[in-house]
Amino acid sequence: MQKFRVLVVDDEVDFLETFVDRLKMRSLDVIGVESGEKALELLDKQNFDVAILDVKMPGMDGIETLREMKRKMPLMEVIMLTGHASVESGIEGMKLGAYDYIMKPADIDELMEKMRQAHEKKSIHEEKIHHARIKELTAHPRRVLDMVKEDEK
Amino acid sequence: MKESSYSKLRWKIIITTLCFSLIPLFVLGVTIYHQFRVSYTSKIMENLRSMSDSKRRAIEIFLEERVAQLNLLASTSGFEKLKDQANLEKAFSIIQGHSYSFVDLGVIDANGQQVAYVGPYHLKDLNYKDEDWFNTALVRRKYISDVFMGFRKIPHFIVSLVYRSGNQEWILRATINSDIFDNIVRAAHVGRKGDAFIINRNGILQTKPRLEGDIGDLSKYCDLTKVASGTHVEELEISGRKAVFATTWLKNNEWLLVMQESPEEELKPVVETRFISIALFAGGILVIVLGTIFTTQLMMAKLIKAEHEKAILDDSLVQSSKMAALGKLAAGIAHEVNNPLAVIKEKAGWMSDFLKMEGIGESENLVKYEAAIAKIDQHVERAKKVTHRLLGFARRMEPVHEMVDINKTIDETIDFLENDARYKNIDIQADYFDSLPRTKSDSAQLQQVFLNILNNAIDAIQKDGEITIKTTYNSKDEEIAIAFKDNGPGIPREEIKKIFDPFFTTKKMGQGTGLGLSISYGIIEKLGGRITVESEEGQETTFIVYLPVERE
After folding, report:
1. pLDDT of residue B241
2. Which of A117, A135, B160, B265 gives 20 to 30 Å between its CA and that of B358?
3. Residue A15 to chain B, least CA–CA distance (Å)
């Protein structure tokens, strides 16, 4: 399986640690944080492909965090983890741009599959953007120079 | 409320109402009767008093007239003329000419010798010198005697007047006609039992009473002579008889005129009034009692009906609030249990991952470890199923509103179960109402309800049986009814009440959560309908889902 970067956000530390361990065993590049605030801080420094986000957390809750994440990193795919009677919040999350939701306690294989699909979607998405750029560059070669200039600055 | 407290309340109302209506009625009746009796009695007494007064005057006038007649005779004729028998007879016939007030007339000289006499008795030449009245008459000059026997041996009374001519005194004596006098007295009486008579100071009868006794007898009313002068009216009981008496003295307080009236007769209107008022009172009591019982009965019936309606309402309120509370509780439990479950699951998963990677493959207990982890996983799955169903139960999702064809929804539901049913040799028959109206509802939720009911039916039958589904439409109530009937073993009476309670299940441990029917109940309630269940043990069970028809 292609290696990709995963961010796990859950306030239940016991769960978080084990879950991160297990994902690492499945040769993924995983970082776990226990609050929405920390996740957003981390996003400023690092890039992730997929985020697993618990809906119900003290402090900044899942939906709020999702909104911020999508603002900071629109291409990152988010899978919501709902632990309580809130299929609605899962649905709401999807309306806000989450890729999918999964009910706790989640089956790791099911989750792996969803993450893989999410990553694939992201890759396709990125590829499309890449192609679009190339198209634009071939159409307007001078733009490359502009870009180089910009980089120099 | 219990039957006994109803009847206690009923009696309380009846007794209170009767007290409040009968007491005023009774007081009113007694007061009116009493007032009437008092005023009527006083009127009778007043009447008797005035009659007694007028009678006294009549008697006194009668006696005065007699005296006047004799005075006239004496002064016009004189002793010399009247002592002549022929002259006296002539004078007597003139006096008697227009009334028969006198029986006889005699002229007596100062020595008591009767010198002339006119009358039916042979009294001429008798000497009265030794008679009581003669001496009294000489003293009194004008004397009206009491009744006495005299020479004629017949009770009578006389009027005697003393005159003087020259130096000689003489007496004119006349006997009053008792029959006429008695009549004058007796005419005063009133009614069949009334009487009027005169007694002297000693209680001796001076006139013949109408009812009992005779002139000269001692009257049994002699005690009446004790009254003072003047007119008295009172009710007395004498020798065992009650009567109203009017007494008045006359003739210089020598004679007492007694008028007696029977109260029974005089007070007859009062007695009649009493009878009428008692009859009215009894009638009033009857009407009031009947009315009270009738209205109480009516009131109690209304009360009991209201109580019953209230009990039913309370019941359904309790049921829905129970459901709401349980929903919250279920959500809370599900949430609290889910997080530890997730941790357990992850830890177990991690252990299983670890076993595969670390190459502990040589350990002889590896298989046992793996089995234990698989068991942990399996039971976490089982717990997860429970929490997820709890979440489903607690979910407060607004139903989707779409136009639903109930028959089609049932068909789809049957499709789900067809394989299972065929395998267990259970025949599912559907009898659809052809023109069943479409209704605004939530087909997914309805399907869940139908699925729950049908699943229960299949589980109840177990093997070889029949399930019939019938849809009907009641146009009057705008209601669709869907009946699910199975020929399973039925539901025991004591369990049928609990059937919609959450966590109530008859299935084996681990096979059912006991939430299916309570979820269904909640769904149908939210969709504005209701579910009922009827069961005959050993025969069949019928669930009926009622849904209101809501058109677009």
Report:
1. 74
2. A117
3. 5
